[in-house]
Inverse folding.
């Protein structure tokens, strides 16, 4: 009887750990996306490994470790998740690649916002990248928000307003001068820590299985006491 009780207890603990831990993972962007071509890809492209759709200028780069960088400083960039996520945090740096230099570089704040599947804003924040221009120093952005379906990185170029409205500008700045109050940089994003949304609540089938295990565990204990009387 003790052996059976021990087995049931182990099974119950295993399923509890599985529910709480199996859906959490980090998007490291280490691997080159299948079919990736920085010179010939559509207005939106796919990162199948993580179930992501990305804007044209949200590029992948392997130099200095796999990561994404937002090339479209004249237009907003975005990431769309195939399924809603609980977004915990991610890291961001002001450079597109290690040691990158550009005479136009001026670093400053980047406004970021998260939206649910109905395009309602569920989180927003500002990452001040003024002092994050060394590849060995990354800013951790804490989000801790559920039901995130889309993440927008608002372009630092073209307006001094907090939220840049120039969503549909072409990929290139066309050599235009940088407007006053703007910043010019191409930030990198890495190590995105996510969970599938609503994993804190087990499915009905899982609940039934856990209930059966618990019933068996305590039921055997009750039978044992009854027979020993």
């Amino acid at each position: 009887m003790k052996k059976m009780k021990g087995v049931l207890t182990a099974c119950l603990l295993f399923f509890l750990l599985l529910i709480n831990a199996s859906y959490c993972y980090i998007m490291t962007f280490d691997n080159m996306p299948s079919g990736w071509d920085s010179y010939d890809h559509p207005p939106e492209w796919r990162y199948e490994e993580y179930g992501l759709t990305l804007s044209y200028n949200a590029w992948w780069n392997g130099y200095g470790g796999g990561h994404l960088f937002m090339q479209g400083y004249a237009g907003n960039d975005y990431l769309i998740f195939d399924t809603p996520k609980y977004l915990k945090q991610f890291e961001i740096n002001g450079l597109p690649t290690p040691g990158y230099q550009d005479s136009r570089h001026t670093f400053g704040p980047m406004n970021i916002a998260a939206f649910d599947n109905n395009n309602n804003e569920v989180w927003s924040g500002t990452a001040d990248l003024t002092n994050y221009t060394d590849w060995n120093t990354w800013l951790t952005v804490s989000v801790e928000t559920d039901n995130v379906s889309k993440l927008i990185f608002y372009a630092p170029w073209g307006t001094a307003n907090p939220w840049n409205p120039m969503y549909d500008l072409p990929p290139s700045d066309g050599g235009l001068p940088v407007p006053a109050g703007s910043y010019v940089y191409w930030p990198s994003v890495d190590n995105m820590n996510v969970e599938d949304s609503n994993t804190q609540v087990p499915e009905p089938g899982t609940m039934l299985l856990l209930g059966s295990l618990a019933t068996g565990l305590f039921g055997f204990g009750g039978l044992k006491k009854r027979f020993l009387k």
